[in-house]
Write a structure and sequence with these properties.
The protein is of the alpha/beta class. It is built from nine helices and eight strands. The protein binds zinc ion (ZN).
């Protein structure tokens, strides 16, 4: 990668190790520079880590940043070394780093990497009592003329009382709380949760400027088509 910012910078010819050595000297002028290794790793996100071990600094940076301009690398060095040695990070550096991560192309790349590398646990549709594929297809026929493409379907790892289900667009997956696979939990409640998540596929989140509407008016109207809606919601309240 070559851009104007990089060309104009005197840092342009520094290796990542050289950048870390220089920033180290700035932060701790009287301490001899330790042995230092910078490594780019295939993380699922843009996280980076620094560790001091046996007198050696080991920096592991997301390979998402491998092509980042040198000034961004420098900013990250200030952030990581500042964190390690508990020194305040100048706003200039945190701001520069954040700006870079917020760039549209960088965000896009980060999302792709998350999709490909993110180790999301998706159990598969078969539970002990219910098969999510059967439920999905039944509702698909009943409410969507059988035309909805089937996403990945899975049960949550653990039963929880807070989140009944969710649709994850980056993995194209509907995850249903394992609680609904238990004996004594009415099928109606499970069907309603699945239907609700299917509506999230049908009616994407509305981004209106900075406002984000998940349950749009259309969504709510469509949800009313579920028979015994009130009864299903009542069951959820008592779980
Ligand atoms: Zn919802």
């Amino acid at each position: 990668m070559l851009d104007l910012q990089g060309l104009e910078s005197s840092l342009f010819f520094e290796t990542p190790e050289e950048i870390y050595r220089r920033v180290f000297r700035e932060l701790k002028p009287r301490t001899p520079i330790p042995g230092l290794r910078v490594e780019f790793c295939r993380f699922a996100n843009a996280d980076s880590f620094i560790r001091l071990e046996n007198g050696h600094l080991h920096v592991r940076i997301s390979d998402l940043l491998e092509g980042a301009p040198a000034p961004v690398m420098e900013a990250l060095a200030h952030i990581l070394l500042g964190k390690l040695y508990r020194k305040p990070v100048a706003r200039l550096y945190s701001h520069r780093y954040r700006l870079y991560l917020n760039r549209r192309d960088v965000r896009r790349q980060a999302q792709l990497v998350r999709q490909i590398r993110g180790r999301k646990f998706i159990s598969g549709p078969a539970g002990e009592r219910h098969n999510l594929e059967e439920i999905f297809e039944r509702l698909n026929r009943q409410f969507f003329d059988g035309l909805m493409g089937r996403p990945l379907l899975g049960w949550s790892r653990r039963a929880s009382r807070s989140l009944f289900g969710h649709f994850d667009p980056s993995h194209n997956a509907i995850i249903i709380n394992r609680l609904f696979d238990r004996a004594g939990v009415p099928l109606l409640a499970l069907e309603y949760v699945m239907f609700h998540e299917m509506l999230h596929l049908r009616y994407p989140v509305d981004h209106n400027g900075s406002r984000r509407r998940v349950h749009t008016r259309e969504f709510k109207e469509a949800e009313k088509k579920f028979p015994r809606l009130a009864e299903a919601k009542e069951i959820l309240k008592r779980l």
